[in-house]
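Aim 2 progress update. The chain analyzed this quarter is reproduced below.
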Amino acid sequence: MIWASLQFIGLARKDQYKILYFVYKILCRQRNPEHSPSTALQHDPTSSRLTRLPFSNLRFWIPVSVDHSYPARSHPEHRSSGMSPTMFPPTGSSHSHTPRGIRRRSLRLIALGAISLLGLAACSSSGAADAGSGDSEDAAGATMTIRFGNVISVGDTQNQAYDFFAERVGELSDGRLTIEVYPDSQLGGEREMVESTQVGDLEMTAPSAGVLANFDPALQVFDFPFIFEDAETAYTVLDSELGTELLRDVEQSGLVALGWGENGFRNLAMTDGIVTDPAEMQGKKLRTMQVPMHIAYWQSIGAAPTPMAFPEVFTALQQGVVEGVENPFELLHSAKFTEPANYLTETRHIYDPEIILINKDLFESLSSGDQEILQTATDEMIAELRTLKATVSDEVRADIESAGGTVADLTTAERQAWIDSAIPFYKENAPTVDIDKLRQVLEAAGNTTFLDAIK
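Predicted structure tokens:
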């Protein structure tokens, strides 16, 4: 627009150059006293098109002649700053004087042009500032869909809580952030979804601590049996500084842990009768997760642990590939494992926390406000999940029994036999994990039996 105005008033081409350069120097000083005009100039000698002077937010264009109509001479200031000799026409003299044909009329035009351009620069600065603010608001207010995959059956307490999480994220973000929950292994098994979340193919997932221990070995401490006597003891440990530290360590795996979810206490379900004594597991083929410590424990008491992906378990139980499975009652029932494996024992041999995960790069790309929204919704979801879990085991147990299943409780002596069966396992396997962390967890849980075993 500026160039068109100068052409409109009928000045000669070289006079127009002089005015533009004069105004340009004023603008440079006005926008940044330390800015040298030469540092912003760009010249493409292969083009006769416009060349931009991109200083700060001003977008200021002038035509560059490449037909070399003017001699290849430059002002000493241009030479010292490295400017192209054809960027501006020579003045015809190294002395500073008013160019021929400009004089009073042109000086007035220069002054008017300078005033106009300075006003435009001020507007440009103001407009750029406003645009920058708008861009920031757009970045902070970006819309996004986040997929949350898990292996838990539709309707289980975890997925009820995950749906609650999705609702809260939508409410807190005024609908900008959408959580799409994919239950029932729709996006793969636990380990597969962790790997997908690591590389960004999936945004969120919630594996058990046992599966995530394959990626963060410090979490193997939760794979040891009979650490927690009840859920309240587990919550105390998970909500402590120790639990927070373990969540932070997950970031080394390219993931961000937003909090501790809950799968619950794992119990036995067998196809061929009730088991109340660990010795009765001798030679039994038991489906386990792909978790080294789980496998090692069952091997230590003579069972034949068979790692298997969750979606394959029902058929394996039906066809006799395995004779039993171990999971929380709710999951055993909702996955219909209790149809082929309808002899259950409440062993509570492992408390199984879940970890709410999000891809690290994605989380760090979010604004601090959106990060806070996800964290707040996660905290609320965990509280909701714990409330749901408080009563679900008794409800599910009643459903299993009403459907013809048998559920056995352990006597005090029987439970102690199970606990004692794990002492050799602790002595052998504690040195293979972070034993200091294991001691801290056992101490926080008040578990002196296994603390004494690994002294």
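Residues 2-139 form one domain. The chain has a mean pLDDT of 80. These observations will guide the mutagenesis experiments scheduled for the next reporting period.
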